[in-house]
Each structure stands twice: as structure tokens, then as C-alpha cells.
Amino acid sequence: MTHYPRRTFLRNTLATAVLVAVGGTGLFSPHRALAAEWPKDAFTAKKLEDAVQALFGSTAMSPSASIKLKAPAQAENSAQVQIQVTADLPNVEAIAILVEKNPSPLVAHASFQGAEGYFSARMKMAQTSDVVAVVKSGGKLYTARQNIKVTVGGCGG
């Protein structure tokens, strides 16, 4: 049997009382202000243009050679398609990845502040489709696209 000294017991009791008191004030509860707003309309849109409009408030996009989209030309596993977007543009504010023929085209969206224009992720594709990267820089929208062929069972057909 272990014997706890009286001081240890009192210290633990006091610490527990403080935690209960602080917890009762709501200081440990999660706050909505800590999370960014989720663009629900953009993620539930069924058309690429509708998703871009809901996300950025505009569909006026200009193609840009400053955006590099790195993805395989052929995806043998459509559930895990690796994609990288690099934007060599000043003041990159956001990058969005969209798959034109997915049931919900918006795959990912990242906002930036004082960071390089780089985004990497794995995405799921429903079928062979254009993948579109939309980059917001200096208040304007720029885009790059690449067609990715999805094979069934990795057979190349």
C-alpha cells in the first residue's frame, strides 16, 4: 500500500479545485472564433463555376504560366491522386483545387497570409477529368489546368 504525504494530497486537491473552477468559467471550452469559416456553398456546388463563384465571389479567371500544377498524367488509383500547386505570383491569398467532373468539384481550398504560394495534397477523382488550380493573388484570380486520365484497376484503359 502506498502512503501519500499530506502535502501531496492537499496539492492535488487544490489543483483539482482550480481546474474545476476554471473549467466552469468556460475558459477551456472550444470557441467558434478559433476556426475559419467553412465555405459550405463552395464545397456543395455541383458545377466548377458555381464553386469558384461561391468561394471567391467571381468567376473571372486568367490563365497563368506562373502557376505550376504537378500531377500524374494517368492516375492508377483514383482514390489517391497526388497533386502539387506552386504559384510564383506576388501576394498569394488563396489556392483552390477543383476537379471538373467530380460530383462536387471543389476538392481543397487553402488561404494564405505572408506565405509562399504552395499547396500539396492527395485527392479523389471520380473519372478522367481536368484538374483546375485557382490562385487568388493581388485580388485577381489566375488558373492552370491539367487533364488527368483515371484508369480502372490500373489497366491503362
SSE blueprint and pairings:
Layout: H1 6-25, H2 40-44, H3 48-56, E1 61-63, E2 67-70, E3 74-75, E4 81-87, E5 92-99, E6 106-111, E7 117-123, E8 129-137, E9 140-150
Textual characterization of the structure:
The protein has 157 residues and is α+β, with helices and mostly antiparallel strands. The chain has one domain (36-150): SoxY domain (Immunoglobulin-like, Sandwich). Helix content is 22%, strand content 36%. It has three helices and nine strands. The protein has helices at residues 6-25, 40-44, 48-56, and strands at 61-63, 67-70, 74-75, 81-87, 92-99, 106-111, 117-123, 129-137, 140-150. Strands 1, 3, 5, 6, 8 and 9 form a six-stranded mixed β-sheet that branches. Strands 2-4-7 form a three-stranded antiparallel β-sheet, with no helix packed on it. It is elongated, with a radius of gyration of 24 Å.
Characterize this entry briefly.
This protein has 157 residues and is of the alpha+beta class. It has helices at residues 6-25, 40-44, 48-56, and strands at 61-63, 67-70, 74-75, 81-87, 92-99, 106-111, 117-123, 129-137, 140-150.
Helix/strand class? alpha+beta
Helix content: 10-25%
Oligomer: single chain
Question: Looking at CATH, which topology would you report?
Answer: Immunoglobulin-like
Total number of helices: 3
What is the CATH homologous superfamily assignment? SoxY domain
Beta-strand content bin: 35-45%
Please report the total strand number as a whole number. 9
The CATH architecture can be given as Sandwich
Supply Rg: 24 Å
Apparent shape: elongated
Q: Largest beta sheet, briefly?
A: 6 strands, mixed
CA distance, first residue to last residue:
71 Å
CATH class: Mainly Beta
* N-to-C order of helices and strands: HHHEEEEEEEEE
Mean of the pLDDT scores?
84
